[in-house]
Amino acid sequence: MYTQGLDQKQKKSAADPADTPERLAAFQARIDAEEKIEPKDWMPSGYRKTLIRQMSQHAHSEIVGMLPEGNWITRAPTLRRKAILLAKVQDEAGHGLYIYGATETLGVSRDDLVADLLSGKAKYSSIFNYPTITWADIGTIGWLVDGAAIMNQIPLCRCSYGPYARAMVRVCKEESFHQRQGYEIMLELCRGTAEQKRMAQDALDRWWWPSLMMFGPSDKTSEHSAQSMAWKIKRISNDELRQKFVDVTVPQAEYLGLKMPDEDLVFDQKTGHYRFGEIDWQEFWEVLKGNGKCNRERLETRNRAHDEGRWVRQAARAYAEKQAARKAA
Amino acid sequence: MSKDQALIAYVTRMGDNAIVMAQRLSEWVGHGPELEEEMAMSNFALDYVGQARMFFSYAGELDGKRRSEDDICFLRDGWDYGNVLLVEQPNGDFGETIARLVLFETFYSLQLEALATSPATKLAEIAARAIKESTYHLRHASNWLIRLGDGTDESHRRVQNAIDRLWTYTAELFEADPVDQIMQSEWQGPDLTVLREHWHRQIDELLAKATLQKPEDGWMDSGGKGGHHSEHLGYILAEMQSMQRTYPGANW
To answer: For residue B250, which residues of chain A lie inside 8 Å, CB to CB?
Structure first.
């Protein structure tokens, strides 16, 4: 997932009077003992808030993420690919629903969360503000974007909040299938014609750096990380996860015969890790602020769907009320 | 036309109906009134893609020209597509998509049921498998038709308009051309006259539950089965076939 926007500066809210030092200490002791926190347990208001923000952002990302991939369903090059892509997009809707459900255990409603997405108040992963121009983008999203998501999500399976951790176990299984099907698309392209290879390289060139940005700002500038680590919502830092992703992915690109769009990329024999070039953080912050290629479109699309669906939801409600009244009569 | 040729044409047409429905329903991804409905629509689309693959593969086996499911789907032009006009019509609003699903799936379920005992055993197998999906689609769409028909004034008006607009395409479902006739006489295909009666009975019942009026049969459009399509099919094919047409012979 998609925690990249969590590290933005938030206004410091006044301390909750219920968060007494005794309670906070007892809570931290449970966390340190690796106990899972469940919905009915007492939790600090900051813990609840952080989780609501992170989990809803995750759910929103699943839903907005359907758009760039949905863009290719009707044009998938074979029937088999069409079927796989449809199944994948359906999985994503399922993840969204599932995670919204898990977020509701924290005392918020899905309707309110969705309203925040539609108004632009809530964030979703910036990666979905990049366009899917060619079929190779569908392969690359599976390979890199889902690959990066899995890197992020596997530690979340051990997150201290029980419902989120359990949701992640299921989500991770499906994501790893998505990652494999993405890589398989790339393999097919790279074994294919010169045009197909060109398509694959072009997609990698466009998606590589945004994929690295998915892990969020560097640990040096990420202000929420420390508290989230102490609460064991986050287990591994942004930079560590990013490094892990680079180490796993570079050999995969080599196997495909593709060139990473990074002149500074080099394997460091001493550390056993790849060293890579500087990320363009300016681009990261711009896209986060709304200045990406598809930010406006994505939000407009979701808003249009919501507006155009209003009469349907009203009808469903009216019918349910009529039915209830008929039963009562 | 030989009985084998009729079977090939018939199976291909069934694949055509399925894939065109899949394309239309896929358009709802990212645009549904509720997440649950986006999932339902993409789920149905996936079922239809699966059915299209089975029909096209079978047609490819039968005609012995070594055509794959993809050759049949992506390398034929509109005049060789034999889907009915009803399925290629634009989605319209959610109510119109539901209305089309109801009108088509009521027919399709009955058609599949009849084919499940055909001596063309492979066709019978596909039909038996597809009927489970079709039954579920029909139940879901029928529930929505009732909700929308008996929901608010606006939803009632919208879905009534949708039924009225689509009605002109329903007669084609029951027009028996030589392919249908040979299917009936040689392969125990459905008797479309009988099927029509069943269809009307089910639709009458459902429209009543949904507090909707059944339209009168006026001028009824047709031609799809024979490859005479509306303007819409060309765009569906242009979009669906673009990769195969731009990169001929590539593997994906």
So the answer is: 77, 192-193, 195-196
**pLDDT of A221:** 80
Contacts of A91 (CB under 8 A, 6+ apart): A174, A178
Supply the pLDDT for residue A16.
Answer: 83
Q: Taking 80 as the threshold, does the pLDDT of residue A11 lie above it? A: no
Q: Please check the confidence at residue B60 and state whether its pLDDT lies above 60.
A: yes
- Cross-chain residue pair B45–A86, CB shorter than 8 Å: yes
- pLDDT at position A2 over 80: no
Computed over every residue of chain A, the mean pLDDT equals 94
The HSE-up count of residue A119 (CA atoms within 13 Å, CB side) is: 8
Residue pair B123/B215 in contact by the 8 Å Cβ criterion: no
Is B172 in contact with B225 (CB distance < 8 Å)? yes
The Cα B134–Cα B112 span in angstroms is 9
ipTM of the complex: 0.98
Nearest Cα to Cα of residue A59 among A130, A164, A158: A164
Judge residue A270's burial from the number of C-beta atoms within 10 Å of its C-beta, 0-12 exposed, 13-18 middle, 19 or more buried.
exposed
CATH class of B3-246: mainly alpha
Phi, psi of A268 (to 5 degrees): -95, 110
Q: What is the largest distance, in Å, between two alpha-carbon atoms of chain B?
A: 55
The residues spanned by each domain of chain B are: 3-246
A314 to chain B: closest CA residue:
B152
> Hey, what are B111's tokens?
């058609």
